[in-house]
Amino acid sequence: MHYTDSELDTLKQFYQRQLLDNTIPFWFPHSVDKEFGGYLFMRDKDGSLIDDDKAVWIQGRGAWMLSTLCNSFGTKQEWLDGAKSGIGFLNKYCFDTDGQMFFHVTRDGRPIRKRRYFFSETFAAIAHAAYAKASGDAAAADKARFLFGKCIEYATKPGLLPPKYTNTRPSKGIGVPMIMINTAQQIRDTIGDPRCDEWIMKWIDEIEKDFVKDEIACVMEQIAPDGSIIDHIDGRTLNPGHAIEGAWFILREAQHRNNDPRLIALGCKMLDYMWERGWDKEYGGIFYFRDVFGKPVQEYWQDMKFWWPHNETIIATLMAYLLTGNEKYAAWHRMVHQYSYDRFHDKEYGEWFGYLHRDGSIAQTAKGNLFKGPFHLPRQEWLCWSLLHHRKN
Predict the structure, then answer these.
(1) Which of 88, 98, 230, 331 has the least C-beta neighbours within 10 A?
(2) What is d(CA 243, CA 306) in angstroms, rounded to the nearest whole number?
(3) E strand or H helix at 242, and its extent?
């Protein structure tokens, strides 16, 4: 069943209301660390603090989100000041002497650990870019472009980052081209950079060529360097929500390129493949992990329902519907939207719980930790509002 114009207007109002009256107030302003800068995001269901460590990538995400609110709804001093606090903390504490960013630091910025990947840098890049647009800070724009260049180097020059271990079974994951597409799109949309268009298409082409497997109707999470499937547990493990996030990055690019039909077809195909593999037909919701050949998955949380795949699927299904008019995507969007706001959303304190058992019962009550903060949910509500606000009837 298609959405009527009235239903889409109601959805637009819903997403804006949830974002500005429910999700954002759960986090801000009380998560801004007035003593050391940055944010205190590790919080229980009622917003009480459960740990004062700081995940560097979520510091960047928080600064990006606050800056994006200013860029979308008009500057609110509370948001702009909060974004500045995050940018300041990143620059003061979160870069090691070798230029690589940390992953996890103490409240006062002392390093705890680094990771072998460069996702902290990607989120710092988009945070600086969005903040530059919101504030007019030219130095922030320069830093965003510098970090984008470093991320391109990390993505394309093996050996710049230390390996996690000696690997006798080389592989490459979809995460790098995905995160770089998103980083380039955000920088292009805020401050602009002549490198973005070319690199975005290179990364999309890589995903299409290597990770999308039409012969088995699947999007792989990792593959061998030659593009083949690694027939071992790790190589067979799929993350449907992650691939669906990649699908909407590509649909977003299609939209940017005057509704490019090839990119619409590719993004919708990825969504179709991974909805079929990821949607739990018995209980509803998106499985966290699946095996490409239907074999057992190693991780014990494989059949749980995490918050963020549902955010990404809400975006992808709405975007696919608006681009194609295919009522299948309207039906899927209704299903995942209803499931998510019925089960993840905390109607008492706001925001979403992060982790459900397969049957939809709450597994634990924390709303913030090293991996969850004000990003996937508020980005989903902001982007869905934006898509509907700017749609052509």
Answers:
(1) 98
(2) 14
(3) helix 240-256
Distances (CA, A) of 30 to 1, 38, 41, 70, 95: 42, 11, 10, 18, 25
Please tell me whether residues 42 and 131 are part of one structural domain.
yes
Find residue 362's DSSP bridge partners: 356
For 207-225, write each residue's pLDDT tens digit. 999 999 999 999 999 999 9
3-class secondary-structure state, position 189:
helix
CA pair distance 164, 152, nearest whole angstrom: 20
Tens of pLDDT, residues 16-55? 999 999 999 999 999 999 999 999 999 999 999 999 999 9
Per-position b or e across 58-86, b if 16+ CB within 10 A of its CB: bbbbbbbbbbbbbbbeeeeeebbebbbbb
Angstrom distance (rounded) from CA 204 to CA 250: 7
Q: Are residues 326 and 392 in the same domain?
A: yes
Check: CB of residue 375 under 8 Å from CB of residue 311: no
> Looking at 166, 186, 207, which one is the last position of a domain?
166
